[in-house]
Amino acid sequence: MTTEQVILPERISGEPQVFEGTADLHDLAGLADTLANADGELRYRVEARLDPQRRKVVSCIIEGFVFLTCQSSLEAFRHEISIDDKLVLVDSENQLPPIEEEQDHEDYVVADGEIHVLDLVEEAVLLALPMVPRKPGTNLAESGGPRAGTRESPFAALERLRKKPE
Q1: CA dist 53 to 14, 57, 132, Å?
Q2: What does the pLDDT average to over 33-53?
Q3: Contact 123, 73 (CB under 8 A)
Q4: Could you state, in order of their start, the residue ranges of all structural domains in the chain?
Q5: For 5, phi and psi rounded to 5 degrees?
Q6: pLDDT, tens digit, for every residue of 84-94?
């Protein structure tokens, strides 16, 4: 039996809370509709601590792979995952910095309760997946897409009809 991994924002201190493990894709229901199957592997390391500015920071490193369905060929393919995120937790929206002061390497999140580590991992993976998955090496012509083969242009057919004697 495993214990559930939970970050309690109010207990974050200078001493890091570290959570490590391998996520079972069967347990990540939010990914089910996105993945081709539940095969794959996601290893994670999540660390919650106070940074030198005394901000509550959660670092999330995820490595592994999942299988996606190519939207061109409809074949399953292996997609590598490599995520290194940094979240700064704040207590309310009033503590969020103005957009122009935000930095690219960190995101701000209002933490209004406990944070389940696997939910954090699942969300990070969802945000890292391509909107339109394509198997590497697949192009539209090979998959029967708009530029496929030698299909005649509909405008050429119209031109022939226009020139056809009556």
Answers
A1: 11, 10, 39
A2: 95
A3: no
A4: 6-163
A5: -95, 120
A6: 999 999 999 99
